[in-house]
Amino acid sequence: MRFHTRKWVKPEDLNANETLFGGRVLAWIDEEAALYSIIQLENKKVVTKYMSEINFMSTAKQGDIIEIGIEVVKFGVSSLTLNCEVRNKMTRETIVTVDNIIMVNLGDDGKPKPHGKKKVEYVRDRLASSEGN
Ligand SMILES: CC(C)(COP(=O)(O)OP(=O)(O)OC[C@H]1O[C@@H](n2cnc3c(N)ncnc32)[C@H](O)[C@@H]1OP(=O)(O)O)[C@@H](O)C(=O)NCCC(=O)NCCS
To answer: Residue ranges of the HotDog ACOT-type domain (predicted)?
Structure first.
């Protein structure tokens, strides 16, 4: 799993217990999944369809640095299934895991559209191959 994004836990991210608010982490995860899918599928019209088990395993406090990891579980026809882990950057302690996040690739009509992708791609390789043409 690659951890792409880091976040700094700030006062506005806390719950009434003064620890990281679960809803905030889910918003961060949803954005990360959307960004990852848009880059992989090369389409800005990608939406979150489904999230499976969400397991809050430990918490974070103000000032902690956390990082968000994403990996591909499966390329479908119009869907992309992702797995996510959020952990403390310094201690590597897992904060939350989401087993399956289903993202769906849409066409201009807002309906599911086949994305044609079968494996993880890297932007640097795409750029290198377009320069080689
Ligand atoms: C995304 C949306 C267009 C999908 O429409 P749909 O009629 O369910 O589409 P389909 O049944 O054709 O399914 C599309 C893909 O999602 C997958 N899928 C749909 N529901 C699923 C579920 N509950 N679990 C797992 N996969 C699911 C299907 O297997 C299919 O994958 P594939 O093409 O790779 O085989 C529609 O549900 C929608 O607009 N939802 C709102 C999305 C949104 O606004 N999200 C932002 C947060 S509110």
So the answer is: 1-109
